[in-house]
Amino acid sequence: MNIKIIFTGGGTAGHVYPGLSVAEKIKQLEPEVELLWIGSNKGMEGEIVREAGIDFKGVPSGKLRRYFSFKNFTDLFRIAGGLFKSCSIIRKFKPDLIFSKGGFVSVTPVAAAGIMKIPVFSHESDVTPGLATRINSRFSKKIFVSYEKTCDYISGGKAVLSGNPVRTAIFEADSQKGREIIKAGDKKIIMIIGGSLGALQVNKLIESIVGSLSEKYCIIHQSGKHQFAGEIPENYKRFEYIKEELPHFMAAADLIISRAGASALWEIAALGKPSILIPLGTGASRGDQQKNADIFKDAGASTVLEGNVTPQQLNKAIEDIMNNEEKKKQMSDAAVKLVNGNPAEFIAEYILGEVKKCR
Questions:
Q1: What is the DSSP letter of 330?
Q2: Which of 59, 102, 177, 330 pairs with 49 at a CA distance of 20 to 30 A?
Q3: For residue range 38-87, what is the model confidence (pLDDT) as tens digits?
């Protein structure tokens, strides 16, 4: 009988691509395995997962907010609907286990699996576990973590240090192809990644200095729906969202400017790229990005700008790196050291071993 595994997670690409990298490794190890992904019926994950060749089922999902909102009440009905739908999907598919990559959409499938006595394995990308992971931990047999520090936040001996899975496309990225696509010529490349949904603070900072930057560098900017105000410089290439070309652009970049989401950080590290990180503060998040950024800053892999960053501060940080080849190499070497082994392969082998032990 074939092994059957359900994956769940979503909300942002950072909750999808690491899970897909684990799914890819599982398929390599067990070609006959049957995979299914449960995500939000209104999220971005459906398109990404289907393009990867994995069956997808959408369920209603309610966001888990840590502040007062009337939607906390209305979303209770969506959560109940998600739980009911997840139970129905699991009952029909009959998985051997469920692997959760997190995000609020993962809570109802994981809870449904717990109710139905299906083993659950979860992964936490950030230094400190998010609310979804803390809820999912009640039903999870093991929780894979990216950083050794995270083990201190997870009780019951459930934590397993694995690193954060990085998709194969990152390791196979072609820097020359990236340069050719963007028509960079002989200019050095600076890439700005605002996350899959963009980042308003980062966008506005870049908008303030892109004129002068583009005189010296080729700028690649994933900006979300933010529109550039004013005349577009010749060497400024703005994208709402970058898909297949993203690994090639990252490989071609001499410097990457980014938020400090875990998935983006590990992809930057896997490519050995110097980076400037502008993490979300506690006013806009639970502080996880600041802790992620601190890991990279302490390792010497990144320059971190926090708080009310000015265009002048960002411009100075850029020039301090771009004008110092020795510093760029030191940051690159430090970044590579942060990625130890192949996390996706480790997780895939671990959970397949668990399935086989129970058969």
A1: H
A2: 177
A3: 999 887 899 999 999 999 999 987 665 555 555 655 667 778 888 999 99
**Model confidence pLDDT, tens digit, residues 101-146:** 988 899 999 999 999 999 999 999 999 998 889 999 999 999 999 9
pLDDT at site 198: 55
Instruction: Look at residue 69 in the predicted model and tell me its pLDDT.
Output: 57
Q: pLDDT confidence of 173, banded at 50, 70, 90?
A: very high
pLDDT above 60: residue 197: no
Rg (the chain; Cα; Å): 21
The C-alpha angle 212, 173, 15, rounded to 5 degrees, equals 90
Non-local (6+) Cβ contacts of 231 within 8 A are none
Q: So what's the pLDDT on residue 334?
A: 96
User: Within 10 A of 32 (CB to CB), how many other CB atoms are there?
Assistant: 8
Walk me through the domains of the chain, giving residue ranges and CATH numbers.
4-166+341-357 (3.40.50.2000), 174-338 (3.40.50.2000)
Report yes or no: 228 and 211 within 8 Å, Cβ to Cβ: no
Contact indicator for 103, 63 with CB cutoff of 8 Å: no
Do residues 228 and 204 lie in contact, with contact meaning Cβ atoms separated by under 8 Å? no
The amino acid at residue 138 is R
Runs of H (alpha helix) within 16-167:
17-29, 45-51, 71-93, 107-115, 131-136
DSSP assignment letter at 123: E
> Any idea what DSSP says for residue 240?
S
Strand 97-100 relative to strand 217-222, pairing: unpaired
Sheet holding 142-145, edge to edge: 55-59, 34-40, 4-8, 97-100, 120-124, 142-145, 159-161
Q: Which residue has the tokens 């071609």?
A: 252
Quickly tell me which residue has 């994933």 as its tokens. Answer: 222
